[in-house]
């Protein structure tokens, strides 16, 4: 009877697909960079980034669910010019003395097949929170080639109006629309 029970359990286990659990991934701050771009006086598109970011991503491949929680240190803005970095950190723009971080917290991840296609959530800049949708243009979930641990990588972007976040100085000469792009790598929490 024990042999029959063991056989039945083995057949049942083989017939039921494995149930995956959500995996939490910690943002790799050395390979994750939020960038922003905007039209400058109709002359060029200015590109800048933030050098310090933290957060986590939860991904459940089987259930096709996930979440993203990212915090950006706005004092780490990098425009390529220390003078302009200070300007962007001023009251008229990011006001980093009062608001040293910006955050994105997802509310929904929309999948296309096995991969996220968009991430809906709340973006907070200068104490103002607005809903945004990040469009995912690239996503991969695999063993990290160097660290040999489960990892994810993605690129996603959205367009906001900076005037909606109390940062409207020089509009319309300096573009109101700002494209935010997040290139993220994260490794499974150990």
From TrEMBL:
- Signal sequence, start to end: 1-20
Q: Which UniProt keywords apply?
A: Signal
Does Signal count among this protein's keywords? yes
Q: Does the keyword Cell wall biogenesis/degradation apply?
A: no
Residues forming the Lipid/polyisoprenoid-binding YceI-like domain are 24-187
What protein does this entry describe? YceI family protein
